[in-house]
Amino acid sequence: MTATVLNLNGESVGENYNVTPDIVLEGAKGALVEVVVVGIEKDGTIFLAGSKGSMNTLWLLEAGKHVLMRDELSDE
Questions:
Q1: 2 and 75 in contact (C-beta within 8 Å)?
Q2: Domain check: are 39 and 64 in the same one?
Q3: Rg (CA), the chain
Q4: How many separate domains does the chain show?
Q5: Rounded to two decimals, what is the model's pTM?
Q6: Are 2 and 15 contacting, i.e. CB atoms less than 8 angstroms apart?
Q7: Are residue 44 and residue 67 in the same domain, yes or no?
Q8: Do residue 6 and residue 26 come from a single domain?
Q9: In terms of domains, do 37 and 68 share one?
């Protein structure tokens, strides 16, 4: 079983947390050199924005996926 971890500086987030998007965005503000934002808008559509073009956005999404999967598997 994994512990719930929430670090608003962007280091890590754990399972079963629930904070507003604004809190997460404020926690990352000023700390990043590149960013991808993925979310769900109020009308249910997907919002996706990246700071360094579509190829870097895709790479960062895939790298983030790898980190999540690695961390999740290492906790088991």
A1: yes
A2: yes
A3: 13
A4: 2
A5: 0.70
A6: yes
A7: yes
A8: yes
A9: yes
Q: What is the secondary structure of the chain as a DSSP string?
A: -PPP-B-TTSS-B-TT----HHHHHHHHTTT-SS-EEEEE-TTS-EEEEESSHHHHHHHHHHHHHHHHHHHHHHT-
- Cα-to-chain-centroid distance, residue 71: 14
pLDDT given at position 14 = 63
Query: Are both 27 and 37 inside the same structural domain?
Result: no
- Residues 17 and 27 reside in one and the same domain: yes
Cα separation, 24 vs 43, in Å, equals 20
pLDDT digits (tens, 9 = 90+) for 26-71: 888 998 999 999 999 999 999 999 999 999 999 999 999 998 888 7
Q: Residue 26 is which amino acid? A: E
The answer to whether 13 touches 23, Cβ cutoff 8 Å, is no
Parent domain of 25: 1-32
